[in-house]
Amino acid sequence: MENSIVIRTIQLADNEEIKNIIQDTLLEYNCAIPGTAFYDKSLQNLFAAYQNNKSVYYVALLNGRIVGGCGISPLENANPNICELQKMYIKPIGRGKKIGKTLLLKCLDFAKKTDYSYCYLESFPHMNSAITLYKKNGFKPIETALGNTGHIACDVRMLLNLSQ
Q1: Which CATH number fits domain 5-161: 3.40.50.720, 3.20.20.70, 3.40.630.30, 3.40.1280.10?
Q2: First-to-last C-alpha distance (Å) of the chain
Q3: Whole-number Å distance between alpha carbons of 62 and 160
Q4: Which of 5, 135, 153, 159 is the most exposed place for a label (fewest CB within 10 A)?
Q5: Calpha distance 32→39 (Å, rounded)
Q6: How far is CA 10 from the centre of its chain?
Q7: What does the pLDDT look like over 83-108, one tens digit per residue?
Q8: DSSP code of 4?
Q9: What stretches of the chain adopt beta strand conformation (E)?
Q10: What pLDDT, in 10s, does the model give residues 60-73?
């Protein structure tokens, strides 16, 4: 059977499912610790967190079921032309099907159209598949954190020049 993959913007009814995917993935990778997205207040209502013209959150559906998501938002306490790739998490059943790449490219397209110059992200070194995907799509490691994400436990930081 052919897999049907749909990418759309987040809806209010998606909040609980996306929260569970994010928290379950962080548990899977032993990253359910303070200073990570696991404890973000925005998880209580992700839909509301992305309701402005400089932000978007995309949800991926596989055969009609939510399997992941990824967003773009301004990087807090940073240059206004730097956005942050946020909360990119995919259930195990959705991995290996190019869903992560599709979400990433959709987010980067939104960032470019919204006139951001750079895209920043934070992750963990043992999230190998994600790091590989980011590098393949032009993200470069940087030493110091940018802005104020609140994710002090994340020790991989990457930046993409959107104009290249």
Answers
A1: 3.40.630.30
A2: 39
A3: 28
A4: 135
A5: 8
A6: 13
A7: 999 999 999 999 999 999 999 999 99
A8: P
A9: 5-9, 56-62, 65-74, 82-90, 118-123, 140-142, 156-161
A10: 999 999 999 999 99
